[in-house]
Amino acid sequence: MIVVIRPNTPREKIDEVISEVQKLGYDARAIFGTEQTVVAAIGDERTHHTLESLLVLPQVENVLRVQKRYKLASRESRPQETVVNIDGVLVGGPHFCMMAGPCSVESEEQLLSTARLVKSAGATLLRGGAYKPRTSPYEFRGLGKPGLALLELARRETGLKIITEVLSVRDVDHVAAVADVLQIGTRNAQNFELLIEAARTRKPILLKRGMSERIEEWLLGAEYILAEGNPNVLLCERGIRTFETYTRNTLDLAAVAIAKKESHLPVIVDPSQGAGRADLVRMLCRGAVAMGADGLLIEVHPNPAEALSDGQQQVDFNLFKAIMSDLPPFLEITGRNPLPAPRA
Question: Would you give the distance in Å from CA 292 to the centre of its chain?
Answer without folding.
Answer: 15
